[in-house]
Amino acid sequence: MATATKWVLDPMHSEVQFKVKHLVISTVTGSFKTFEGELSTESEDFDGADVSFSLDVASIDTNQEMRDGHLKSGEFFDAETYPKISFKSTAFTKDGDDYKLTGDLTIKDVTKSVTLDVEHGGVAGDFYGNTKAGFEVTGKINRKDFGLVWDGVTEAGSVVLGSDIKLIINVQFAKQA
């Protein structure tokens, strides 16, 4: 029986971003500043790894305080009632040099299976003798599937906010001894 290798997310070298269409003509980028995650694998590569991840909704940052407050409110994420967004993998499979990550994403009280693309940046040692692994995780979800259904329409009839949310997550994990 192989021994599992545990890797812990290094928040100093990671970022969680999202992009959404505003008025259908431009894109707004936001991020979450507080998150944690880990993965464990029983093989030399990451095929079959177990991945878990969570982020603090209250750490949302779109560079606009009023918008951030609206996103934390009951009309969107309801951060007071649902303080975390979480993800737990059900599959992490090789796809050429990279991977496909499938798992259960929970936003508010809604859990849905999502599949994301994972580009493996590689494994390297740092100045302190730690082994690090880097990944860029990308994909798209429909916010309405997770109960984020607020919609606004301008006087001219333009939709204020798109439904599709692009995810861009760059993470670095540190191998645990």
TrEMBL record:
The name of this protein is Polyisoprenoid-binding protein
User: What residues form the membrane-spanning segments?
Assistant: none
The lineage's top-level taxon is: Bacteria
The record's Pfam families line, in alphabetical order, gives:
YceI
Q: Which SMART domains match?
A: YceI (SM00867)
Species this chain originates from: Mucilaginibacter psychrotolerans
Q: Which residues form the Lipid/polyisoprenoid-binding YceI-like domain?
A: 6-174
